[in-house]
Amino acid sequence: MNTYTGLMKSSESGVGVVARAGAVLRAVGTAEPEGLSTTEVARLSGIARPTAHRLLSALFDEGFVDRDPRTGVWSLGPELYLLGMSAANRYDITDHANDVLRVLARETGESSFLSARRGDETVCLASQEGSFPLRSHVLHEGVRFPLGVASAGLAILSHMPEREIDDYFRRTDLTAQWGADHAEAPVRTRIATTRRHGYAVNPALLVEGSWGMGAAVFDRWGQPAWALSLTGVETRFKAVRRRELGRLLLEQAHVLSTRLNSVAGR
Questions:
Q1: Where is the IclR-ED domain (predicted)?
Q2: What local confidence, expressed as pLDDT, does residue 13 receive?
Q3: pLDDT value for 79
Q4: Other Cβ atoms closer than 10 A to 143
Q5: 207 contacts: CB under 8 Å, gap ≥ 6
Q6: Strand, coil or helix: 239
Q7: Least C-beta-crowded within 10 Å: which of 46, 64, 104, 217?
């Protein structure tokens, strides 16, 4: 019996083990390629250190994580790479989005990003730097935010069905990490504004002076599965220009949605 099977037969439910293992893998993934110590993994995943260590050891046995024998630091393992190659055939849309990102960056001078919904979070998949010399560094490839925090996640959350939004708020408290601006009431106000305009705006709620705007990209079932976004310094996001940036985001989001639906329908 390997370590993972042993864990599955422990007093913890199998579903609970899988959820904790997923949290551990996501924590390790946030620090690639530097890696994390066991203590850091436990803190980021919200799991007690002994449990985190047992899960990491089990994942190591299966090849899902690696451990540096000198430093004890954990990093993602080779088995995830092989699985990722298989999953990329279905989920990696960056090849379809690269020219859209270039258009956004060229036309605006701001940095452009593609993010994907992964459960209750968004993860940044790809980016294109703009020509304007001052940049916001809130977003980068691989970074994750809960839905409703960054502009991409707000755009996606705003276009989800009401029942799913209600369920999200029942299980999520954004204020613990992100502060009072991310309580349910103000986030719902931003959802209403996003629905009215079509695009989402994050007015420097994550980092002072750093603004973001996002537009949802829809899958073939009409669900908001991805988002395009622009980030930059506050002086570049005045009201008149926001309308221009929003129009361009919506245009390119429509282009990408149509393209992806066409590919999926083949």
A1: 79-262
A2: 59
A3: 85
A4: 16
A5: 136, 138
A6: helix
A7: 46
DSSP 8-state assignment for residue 220:
T
92-264 belongs to which homologous superfamily? GAF domain (3.30.450.40)
Residue where the block lists tokens 């530097």: 34
Going from N- to C-terminal start, the domains of the chain cover 3-84, 92-264
pTM: 0.71
Q: Which H, E and C letters describe 100-168, residue by residue?
A: HHHHHHHHHCCEEEEEEEECCEEEEEEEECCCCCCCCCCCCCCCEEECCCCHHHHHHHHCCCHHHHHHH
Residue 59 is predicted with a pLDDT of 93
Within 8 A by CB and 6+ apart from 247, the residues are: none
CA quadruple 254, 90, 119, 129: dihedral, nearest 10: -50
Which residues, at least 6 apart from 89, have a Cβ–Cβ distance to it below 8 Å? none
Q: Which CATH class is domain 3-84?
A: mainly alpha
